Amino acid sequence: MVNIYLSAVLPVLGAIVNLSTPGDYISFGVISISVANFVVVVVMTVIFIAAVFLPFPHRKEEGK
Amino acid sequence: MSTFANEKDREESVRGLVEDQDMWTNKVRRKFYGKLPPEKLLPDRQPAYVSSWIYVFGVLTMSALAIVIGSGLLLALEGPSWWHNSPEGLFVNSLHLWSVELFFIFMVVHLWGKFFMASWRGNRALTWVTGVIAFLGSVGTAFTGYLSQQNFDSQWISTQAKDGLNAAGVGAFFNVLDFGQMLMWHIVLLPLFVIAIVVLHIVMVRIRGVVHPFPPKNANDYPADDMGWTGRYRRYDILKEGSIAMTVVVILTLVLSVVFSSPDEKPLTLQSWAQTAPIDFVSTATAELSGTAPAARYGYPYNYVPGSGQKLGPFSLPSIFGVTIPVNPPLDFVMRPLATIANEPNLTNALTQFRSGSSTVQSKWEDNYTKALTKATVVNGNVVTSPGTYGPLPVMMNSLLKMADSGGLDASLIAGSGFYGTNYTKPLLFLADGTYMANIAQKQHLLGTQWGMMNESGNFPGQAWLWLYTFWYQIKPFSTSTNADVMVWATMIFLSGVLMAVPFIPGVRAIPEKVKLYRFVWKDYYRESESSNKGSKG
Asked: In which region does residue B412 sit, left (phi positive, over 0), alpha (psi from -120 to 50) or beta (all else)?
């Protein structure tokens, strides 16, 4: 039953954004990077900057 | 409720009887307990400065790794036809792909964070080294995963990667064209290594604890890096944090898989090649027969070709192991498969004529036929050339074309290729010698000059973590050298060593202290401690 449901639903869900289209690339001199890889690098960098600079929720402190 | 009435009882229990203290088991128990007592293994307190989002990326990496392993287990159990042909299989394949992407994103953020915190201070260099080894091991594991996909991407990557590995001598026993072998590396050997090194890394973290911040301004009696923290502590529920992290990563992986799915370009076969580009197939087969195609002139580990093989200075690494994966293109790709075709009198006569011809005559036929093929046409499934002195070659090559068209040549080149029934060394070497495969790869932006090793087909993210490896091929002296592969490998091995040795390299290890990004990581701690220092001095 679950398999039948998954078989019916998953192909539809998997087509929400179709990435199986001709790739887009950014080129600059010898550098060439796919837009998808570029997005991954940007996301990673933004996450790192956010992790360093965003305030962390304070927790209850106590002495040793 | 504790089993022991007090701490003293527990220590006595760990110590055991005096007469037992020479026992191996007793010694290991005491050593383990001394280094990693339960309160260190599962701490519920951490120093108060552990108050930054950067600290959550270790456990996020672990959570993504757990999903990678779980989805990978399912894929391995069900097999390639499941992940290629069923929606459930493709969905689990998507979970695997996106959890790997998340795993690398979290791991790199974790690595950057630990670098800028100089986390190797206070006898924690081994923790850094094991972390870098885990990263490099993960890159290798992911790479074998891309090779195990059994789609076009894995085919093309394997034909390109083989040159680097063969140039480094590794290809002698690590055959990227053998997808069965790659799957075994991917699901057993490398994961075991990565898991073992990750466990060691975590144990090191738990034993040493998190590194102290650099001393605040005007600090008095600040504990040395290798001493215990003497400041305040805060509640820290490590299992709760792990559960939240796992939930977040599960949701992210599910959303990415549902929204984007995963790529799955159909693999090429000799059959599809023969059907789609018959003239290119016959031209390549003729080159294989004459021994002028790249596979016949490749050298180690496939065949012995004097003067072939890349060199690192005076050293030829491939020659250390010699021919370990024997491939004889004229025989393996053409003559032996043709000899298996029965009840074809014309072909039998053609083979007899070819074998009885001298090498000079054979070369003449091959040269003439190769030139004629540039103007050949396809008529009723046969490659037809203008009349000329080609000997038996038209009959032989059209028979091979028909064999490929029927799928028989694919089966013939895989048959008897060892334990793994998916050793595609011969068909892929054959395919890679033609222009058909390279033309498709060029359209997919997968060529070496297109930074192809880090790309995926379509608009999917690929192995972005291979950017540095791919980069070297684009610049001189690598881009113009005949020894490019071995030079790139030597460079990457050197740089990997440098990354591992960061805690020991003067200048490099001082970068975090000079950049001072750590001031933002530990901003709460510095604000509090420096304002209290100022207050006490005032």
From this structure: alpha
Residues of each domain in chain B carrying CATH 1.20.810.10:
53-262+505-537
Residue whose pair of structure tokens reads 């680097």 in the numeric block: B164
Question: d(Cα B374, Cα B467) in Å, to the nearest integer?
Answer: 38
How many structural domains comprise chain A?
Answer: 1
How many other C-beta atoms are found inside a 10 Å radius of the C-beta of residue B488? 21
Per DSSP, the residues of B243-308 read HHHHHHHHHHHHHHHHHH----PPPP-HHHHHHH-HHHHHHHHHHHHHT-STTTT--TTT---TT-
User: DSSP labels for B178-219?
Assistant: BHHHHHHIIIIIHHHHHHHHHHHHHHHHHHH-SPPPPPPTT-
B234 interfaces chain A, CB cutoff of 8 Å: yes
Question: How near does any CA of chain B get to the CA of A26, in Å?
Answer: 11
List all residues 6 or more positions away from B223 whose beta carbon is below 8 Å from its beta carbon: B212, B229, B230, B231
Candidates B51, B261, B445, B468: best to mutate against A (most CBs of A within 10 A) is B261
- What is chain B's pLDDT, residue by residue, as a tens digit (538 residues)? 444 556 778 788 888 888 888 899 999 989 888 888 888 888 888 999 998 999 999 999 999 999 999 999 999 999 888 988 888 999 999 999 999 999 999 999 999 999 999 999 999 999 999 999 999 999 999 999 999 888 899 999 999 999 989 998 899 889 999 988 999 999 999 999 999 999 999 999 999 889 999 999 877 788 888 888 888 898 888 899 999 999 999 999 999 999 998 888 889 999 999 999 999 999 999 999 999 999 999 999 999 988 888 888 888 888 888 999 999 999 999 999 999 998 899 999 999 999 999 999 999 999 999 999 999 999 999 999 999 999 999 999 999 999 999 999 999 998 766 666 788 999 999 999 999 999 999 999 988 888 888 888 889 998 999 999 999 999 999 999 999 999 999 999 999 999 999 999 999 999 999 999 999 999 999 998 888 766 554 4
CB spacing of A7 vs B86 below 8 angstroms: yes
For residue A22, cis peptide bond before it (omega within 30 degrees of 0): no
CA–CA gap between residue A38 and residue B68 (Å, rounded) = 23
- Both tokens of residue B29? 């128990």
Which one of A1, A2, A4, A10 makes the best mutation probe of the B interface by having the most chain B beta carbons within 10 Å?
A10
Q: Counting runs of H as helices and runs of E as strands, what totals does chain B give?
A: 27, 4
Q: Do B235 and A62 touch (CB under 8 A)?
A: yes
For residue A6, tell me if it sits in a domain: no
Contact B263 A20 (CB under 8 A): yes
For A37, the domain range is: 24-54
d(CA B100, CA B95): 8
Do residues B240 and B69 make contact, with C-beta atoms less than 8 angstroms apart? no
One-letter amino acid of B500: M
Q: Which fold has domain B53-262+505-537?
A: Cytochrome Bc1 Complex; Chain C (1.20.810)
Number of Cβ pairs < 8 A linking chain A and chain B: 143
> Residue B356 phi/psi, 5° resolution?
-80, -10
